[in-house]
Amino acid sequence: MATDITLLWASGSHACWRVMIALEEKNLQGYNQKQLYFEKGEHKSKEVLEINPRGQLPAFKCGDLPLNESCAACFHLECKYKSQGTKLIPDCEEGRALILQRVFEVNALAEKSSSVLYYNWRVPEGERHDSAVKRNKEALTAELKLWEGYLQASSGFIVGKNFSLADVIVYPAVAYLFQNGLSEQRYPKLAEYYKGLMNRPSIKASWPPTWKNAPKQETLKDI
Amino acid sequence: MAKLMSLLWGAGSPPCWRVMITLEEKKLQGYKRKLLSFEKGEHKSQEVLEVNPRGQLPAFKHGDIILNESCATCLYLENQFKSQGIKLIPDSAEDQAVMYQRMMEGLALTDKLNSVIYYDCSVPEEERHDSAVKRNKEALTAELKLWEGYLENVSAGSYLAGAFSLADVIVFPSIACAFRFGLSVGRYPKLAKYYSLLKNRASIKTTWPPHWVASPQGYDILKDL
């Protein structure tokens, strides 16, 4: 039941966005939700810490069950609501294996993106090094080439011919890159994937509100 | 079935160990395997890159299916071989949810452990800072306290998500690593109890890192945490 579900989220957080896409895909609109702001430190508020002792978003509950890890929340929603909405994990062996592989590979993509985008946020001034910035950018470039390769023969989805859990998990990370200025010319397949799913109802409905009127950033334009 | 499976692995690596525990639990012994050496850089060899373009271990194949992310491999094996060996995913959606949550949190635990244990391996000398080492240790301490809390009621048969499950498959190797690197049994009694309850489980004992068996004395990087 959507009314048993609670989500505390922040705009632009890929982890939050994944959960919102999954909720839409499983026809669970009407869940309790509250938008919070990292800039105001609201992710460390008591309200969040009561659900997520790590003080991170999303802070998500299904009934009394906290499920703060976004992949865990998405797996749970697919298992519990298997028979409603979109089927996010197919029955066939090979499709399922590749979906699982891509779901967990996103950690590498997200981590390498964050190490470039949030370098100054994460690393205190006295510890910053140009050599580290350069290395992080090279690692991200290599990672993006892998994903560009995965999308070479794509029919618009990251795995196979249907929207799946892999897209729920991957799409926000990819959208984030383009929002931060990733070059569409240098990464044409990623760009095609990004634009192709932009108007999918679950994605459109949960699009980060702070991106709607904001200009795109340019941090990644030279990657 | 196991004959169609192959695993390239490195000793002491929690992600490799997770896959090996699962293969044992699902009675898939007899898979092809090859031990590679991180110290000799064998994880970056052509043989690995052909299966895992990131040059990381584990690199696992089942026929033509390739699965290099250990959580993906373990989930896949449990789903494919649901009816053999031990059931690693509980039946009820609620118990499953706790399992998934702990599995994913286990990845955060592993990262924080690595940031302390392997600091010198992953950060070039001129970029190292005592302030970063201190911060990483504090983050790891906070993380370990959370797990100490999750295991408040640990006892035989009652682990991270009830009966032994994929949550334990994913997390146990990192806990074992923590004790190998000197974590204090006195300061983390619940984690220590969890460790001692599971270390003799057949699948875990059989796949125990060989060099840990050869030299049981570990290190003490974590002794002051």
UniProtKB/TrEMBL annotation, chain A:
GST N-terminal domain: residues covered: 3-85
InterPro entries in alphabetical order: Glutathione-S-Trfase_C-like, Glutathione-S-Trfase_C_sf, Glutathione_S-Trfase, Glutathione_S-Trfase_N, GST_C, Thioredoxin-like_sf
All copies of domain GST C-terminal, residue ranges: 92-219
Pfam families: GST_C_3 (PF14497), GST_N (PF02798)
Record PROSITE patterns: GST_CTER, GST_NTER
Transmembrane segments: none
Family statement: Belongs to the GST superfamily.
PANTHER family: GLUTATHIONE S-TRANSFERASE GSTA, GLUTATHIONE S-TRANSFERASE-RELATED
Protein name: Glutathione S-transferase rho
Gene name of this polypeptide: LOC100699397
Automatic annotation (TrEMBL), chain B:
GO cellular component terms, A-Z: mitochondrion
Domain GST C-terminal: 92-217
A GO BP annotation: L-phenylalanine catabolic process
Signal peptide: none
Domain GST N-terminal: 3-85
Domain of life (superkingdom): Eukaryota
Molecular function in Gene Ontology: glutathione transferase activity; maleylacetoacetate isomerase activity
Pfam families listed in its UniProt record: GST_C (PF00043), GST_N_2 (PF13409)
InterPro entries the UniProt entry points to: Glutathione-S-Trfase_C-like, Glutathione-S-Trfase_C_sf, Glutathione_S-Trfase, Glutathione_S-Trfase_N, GST_C, Thioredoxin-like_sf
Protein name: Glutathione S-transferase rho
Species of origin: Oreochromis niloticus (Nile tilapia)
Source organism phylogeny: Eukaryota, Metazoa, Chordata, Craniata, Vertebrata
Name of encoding gene: LOC100700109
